[in-house]
Amino acid sequence: MSFLKDFKEFAMKGNIIDMAVGVIIGGAFGKIVSSLVNDIIMPLVSLGTSGDGLKNLKYVIVPAREAAAEGVAAVEEVAVNYGMFIQNIVDFLIISLSIFVALRVIMKFKKKEEEAPAPAPEPTKEEILLTEIRDILKNQK
Questions:
Q1: Residue 130 and residue 107: Cα distance in Å, rounded?
Q2: Is 71 within a domain?
Q3: Boundaries of domain holding 104
Q4: What is the DSSP string of the chain?
Q5: pLDDT per position in the chain (141 positions), as tens?
Q6: Is 79 part of any domain?
Q7: Is 0.85 surpassed by the pTM of this model?
């Protein structure tokens, strides 16, 4: 569940740095993700849409007509292309998910680096002397 929670926080956050990183990584992964969507996922989805694909799904409001006689103008088709809209939503979700996964991996590596304890610096001569004085004072009480 933390994966979905992290993704929701990432998607809803308006942080400019996250957006800049997302744009850079999105550009780098753009061709790979487009190929994944167009060449693997959408052909599988088109099986459910009788092989027509999502891009061609539309609701025709006014069908196209050619000019039947002289003086009668041709009419272009007027349609709502909802299939292309669905295609773009699927593209966006896959791209944003791949960016999120890449950023999550990067952040895990970054956290591991931050968690590694830095070696303690050697105490100076003054610190050693002060520590000895403190110990002597404790023993006197």
A1: 41
A2: no
A3: 2-54+93-140
A4: -HHHHHHHHHHH---HHHHHHHHHHHHHHHHHHHHIIIIIIHHHHHHHTTTS-STT--EEEE--B---STTPPPB--EEE-HHHHHHHHHHHHHHHHHHHHHHHHHHHHHHHHHHSPPPPPPPPHHHHHHHHHHHHHHHH-
A5: 688 888 777 767 666 667 777 778 767 777 777 787 778 877 787 777 666 667 778 888 888 888 777 767 777 888 898 888 888 888 788 777 877 887 888 888 888 777 767 777 888 988 888 898 898 988 987
A6: no
A7: no
User: How far, in Å, CA of 21 to CA of 91, rounded?
Assistant: 19
Residues 6+ apart with CB under 8 A from 59: 79, 80, 82
CB neighbours of 97 closer than 8 A, spacing ≥ 6?
Answer: 7
- Cβ 42 vs Cβ 24: under 8 Å: no
For the chain, how many structural domains are there in total? 1
